[in-house]
Amino acid sequence: MKLLNLKSLISTTLLMTFFVTVNTPAFAEDEKLTHSIQRLSGDAALKVAQAAMLECRKQGYQITATVVDKNGIVQAVARDTLAPPVSIGISRDKAYTAVNFSADTSTMSSRQNTPVGSIDGVLMSAGGVNVNVGGTIYGAVGVSGAPSGETDEACAKAGVAAIAEELEMAD
Questions:
Q1: Could you tell me if residue 79 is inside a domain?
Q2: Domain range spanning residue 72?
């Protein structure tokens, strides 16, 4: 009787070991346990915001440009002298949306009146552009205050262009 129980115990143990082994994901020896995230420096973020603001100023528009990091946290804001106060929050929301969806906000306008588009802080209208250089998203810039979202977006892209070459060289 004891021999039968011992055999049953051994069989059960072997069977359980097999199932645990088969159902446990194998980890590669080179599997990373952490990730390094590249972020813009404060100086780089200021350069993006200022370049976007100056581009719109050249076109005769007073805007606000906000740069956020990869998490959507504000790093820099450049508000031109006569930019409307409401442009501060709008530019932040455009940048926040772009970086959180990893897409320029002009590509999301069809989702504006959906449950996702109704989330506080999410603004799916043109003017939010990712700081995407070499396939790496470092953050985003949002611009508000020009007469159209397309102009906001063009100014935001000018901000990204101001540091794109330096970022490419840094990698």
A1: yes
A2: 42-170
Q: Is 133 part of any domain?
A: yes
Q: pTM of the entire structure?
A: 0.80
- In a domain, residue 27? The reply is no
Nearest CA to 57 out of 75, 89, 79, 85 is that of 79
Q: How many domains does the chain have?
A: 1
Tell me the C-alpha distance between 34 and 94, whole Å. Answer: 29
The pair of structure tokens assigned to 48 is 């993006």
> What six digits make up the tokens of 75?
């790093």
Three-point CA angle 52, 55, 61, nearest 5°: 100
- Which tokens belong to 135? 């396939």
Distance in angstroms (rounded) separating the CA atoms of residues 46 and 125: 23
pLDDT mean values, one per 10 residues, the chain (171 residues): 56 53 57 84 97 98 97 97 97 97 94 88 95 94 97 98 92 63
Residue 12 within any structural domain of the chain: no
Joined together, the tokens standing for residue 98 give 């772009």
